[in-house]
Amino acid sequence: MTTEPGGEARRAAVLRGASLPLLIVVLLLSAAPSIAVETGLFTAPEMEGFVKIQELDGDGNDDGVKETRIRRFRNVNGDRMFTMTAKDQLWAWSVDAVDDDDSQINRNYVLRDSDCDGRFDERYRLDEGFNLPACLE
Ligand SMILES: [Ca+2]
Ligand SMILES: [Ca+2]
Ligand SMILES: [Ca+2]
Fold first, then answer.
1. Considering the entire predicted model, what is its pTM?
2. Which listed ligand is nearest to 115 at the C-alpha?
3. Quick one: CA dihedral 36, 38, 42, 46, positive or negative?
């Protein structure tokens, strides 16, 4: 009997390789339009040098009620930030670096605390939609 050494591992690797495109297809089919969101733990941006330029109320869940206080900030370079707060809970924090095409996710993003535990667990590109978390409905 000639069992190829490592054959099992290679087969497993092939199977893993095959499952990735399938996963992508499943993800594409399951969400239309798909929302590109990274999950993890993200720290709030450094606010040094930013000053508040505007406060307004916004509708974070499209129900016609402006439950969210939006605070906009800017620094001398023109970089922008905003925070979103509802029921005294800061649930979104965004940074938008000036003079770029927003493709650099580390400089242009929205962080969201999806479960109201005080830690940002999602990061969106600036052109992605995001909503008031269910825990603040
Ligand atoms: Ca609302
Ligand atoms: Ca930008
Ligand atoms: Ca969280």
1. 0.74
2. 3
3. negative
